[in-house]
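Final report, Chapter 2: Outcomes

The project's central promise was a pipeline that accepts a single protein chain and returns its three-dimensional structure in a standardized token representation, suitable for archiving and comparison. That pipeline is now operational. To close this chapter, we reproduce one record exactly as it appears in the project archive, with the input sequence first and the structure output second.
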Amino acid sequence: LFETLELAPDVDLLILDLMLPGMSGYEVIEGLRAEARFARIPILVLSALGSTAARVRGLRDGADDYMTKPFLPEELVARARTLVTTRLLERRTREIEALGHIAQASLTAASVGVLLQRIVETVADVVEADAAAVLLIDEARGRLAARAAVGFGDDLDALSIPLPEGLGGRDRAA
């Protein structure tokens, strides 16, 4: 499951049974909540375990909702829609807050370099990226030059690439 999520990081909902081959659904929930990359994915447990103890444990371990089998398909769709909508609203709220931070930084930054650095940091935080950079075309040197970065170390020159190798070079040649 974790390998699959690595390949598809934009999962908006995970519907999970508790009885899985090789491990329990509770272990999956705990593992997802322990990983920062996956901690925000809504989890809807769909299980034959209908006891109060099973439901409480699932919710306590981090499930966002819990349904027992048998279930009405309409109820499953309604609950899934609610969880996905909540996830999308949370994501959109983070994006709007990021735009506010960037707007504030544009008013208070002492220089363009400081502004670009704040933008990179904000965007990396919102999209939960380990690294991000702003590269601008440097006509005089014929390269894409890093102007701000986070997660790459302090040597911005190491991120620069010749224009013919980058997308900027392709756009210029066209």
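Archive annotation: Helices lie at 2-7, 25-34, 52-61, 73-108, 112-126, 167-173.
This record, like all others produced under the grant, will remain available to the consortium after the project formally closes.
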